[in-house]
Amino acid sequence: MDKRIVVSRAVPEPALDVLRQAGKVHVCPQDRPLTVPELHEAVRGAHAIVTMLHDRVDADLVAAAGPQLEVVANVAVGYDNIDVPAVTERGVIVTNTPGVLVDATADLALGLLLMVTRRLGEGERLLRARRPWTFHLDFMLGTGLQNKILGIVGLGDIGQVVARRARAFGMNIAYTGRRRAAAEVEAELDARFLSQDELLRTADVVSLHCPLTEQTRHLIDEAALATMKPTAVLVNTSRGPVVDEQALAKALREGRIGGAALDVFEHEPEVEPALLDLDNVVVAPHLGSATTETRTAMAELAARNVAEILAGHEPPNPVHR
Ligand code: GLV
Ligand code: GLV
User: Fold this and answer.
1) Domain check: are 9 and 71 in the same one?
2) What are phi and psi of 174, to 5 degrees?
3) What is the pLDDT of residue 185?
4) Candidates 51, 52, 53, 82: which one to mutate for ligand 1, based on the most atoms within 8 Å of Cβ?
5) Which residues fall in a coiled-coil region (predicted)?
6) Which domain holds residue 231?
7) Could you tell me if 136 and 191 lie in one domain?
8) Taking 90 as the threshold, does the pLDDT of residue 31 lie above it?
């Protein structure tokens, strides 16, 4: 009997091809995030579930699927939507999609950094509002990146590529995180390891590249924002809840930091309305990995993980060994 593979939301065709070789594929037709009851209903009898970052995966979902469930393959590198201990304890393997989205996400972080420091969103809004303007030596001045300090929170795969790109812009690299990077990485990037407090105090740009965990939830809170320079900008392409969005809106409104560029939000897809009223804020709708190439590669990788597990092999990307 073919194994049942449930895909919570449409994935690119090349991934479906891989999945169809591995079992009987059911793609949920709603094309929106499913409610918890809908998701539980959809996964009944599944041997494999392909999930998106908005799907809550926990003991209840595993119970709803049934004891035959073997794998949950998240089409994302982050897996804060999954209660990994609860799921793996029930004999289900969890996989993610590391590696394939590193460049795309790093590119977006640099794009956001340029947008916020060069006021590109503001400039666009001015023109689209058909407002008059003329070239003027002190018109809409931003700040340059050369010789400024980029403070990276989490020098993992994405953080390192962001650092490398930023070096090409002439920035100096500092980082903080749970552990120190390898000596070769530090040497290549000329990256200084700092305590979180020191990093926040000295960085001109703080860019977040850590996973969302209980340790990083609200890592950027009122106190952290108060530590940052009044000119510093915050870039977030990691997960929304790493930042206390209310505290951020307040700090920005009061001019206690220079600006923010956000691809992710604390209560996605909602955005704290106060942020949208501020000109020194750039917002994007979670586009970090949103290139055709990358999204296809992510879905294919998730599909390969499913196929390996259903065939009884070691998957390439288990999140827990
Ligand atoms: C996207 O946000 C991901 O974690 O892959
Ligand atoms: C700017 O546009 C310049 O020509 O300097």
Assistant:
1) yes
2) -125, 155
3) 98
4) 53
5) none
6) 102-283
7) yes
8) no
Q: Which residues fall within 8 angstroms of residue 175, CB to CB, at 6 or more apart?
A: 151, 152, 153, 154, 155, 159, 163, 181, 191, 192, 193, 194, 199
The predicted pLDDT at position 56 comes to 98
Query: Residue 319 domain-assigned?
Result: no
Q: Is residue 318 part of a domain?
A: no
- Residue 234 contacts residue 261 (beta carbons within 8 Å): yes
Q: Is pLDDT of 284 > 80?
A: yes
Six-digit token string for 122: 């503001």
Residue 48 pLDDT more than 80? Answer: yes
pLDDT at 1: 78
Does residue 218 belong to any structural domain of this protein?
Answer: yes
DSSP character for 145? Answer: -
Residue nearest to atom 5 of ligand 1 (CA): 76
- Report the 10 Å Cβ neighbour count for 269: 10
Report angle CA 38, 9, 243 to the nearest 5 degrees.
90
CA 76 to ligand 1: nearest atom = 5
Q: Judge if 28 and 133 occupy the same domain.
A: no
Q: Separation of 135 CA from ligand 1 center, angstroms?
A: 40
pTM of the entire predicted model = 0.96
Cβ 281 vs Cβ 83: under 8 Å: no
User: What residue owns the CA closest to ligand 1's atom 3?
Assistant: 76
User: Does residue 199 sit within a domain?
Assistant: yes
Q: Is the peptide bond before 273 cis (omega within 30 degrees of 0)?
A: no
Pocket of ligand 1 contains residue 76 by CB under 6 Å: yes
For residue 320, pLDDT beyond 90: no
CATH number at residue 279: 3.40.50.720
Question: How much distance in Å is there from the Cα of 253 to the middle of ligand 1?
Answer: 29
The ipTM estimated for the assembled molecules is 0.67
Q: Sign of the CA dihedral 202, 162, 105, 93?
A: negative
Of the pLDDT bands very low, low, confident and very high (cuts 50, 70, 90), residue 321 is low
